[in-house]
What does this fold into?
Amino acid sequence: MAKGDKGNKQESRSVLKLSYEAFQRGDSVQARALAKAVLAGQVGRDEEKAAAELAKLLSIEGAVVAETPAAVASELISRTIVPPRPYLFVAAVAFAFIGLVILAIWRY
It folds into this structure.
């Protein structure tokens, strides 16, 4: 049985492409970590080419992403920020529910 050589395949990939693939899978944590690594200077061999391809994919009408690795990484980071509003709403609902349970126990 022949074994696949996955090590060389990963080395030739760009960090931006790995970040974008994680973003497409819904893995925000890994996408942000890899994009921050690009901003910190940890880049692969094909970053410029990958940045040009991903800039076209991430650009929308009215907001064009520059074709540089830093701009694409910044765009990926901005798209993976979790807004705090849902967590605040859940906390308010939980507080109201606990208050109603305490009121019901105290009343009856």
Remarks:
- The chain has a mean pLDDT of 82.
- The radius of gyration is 22 Å.
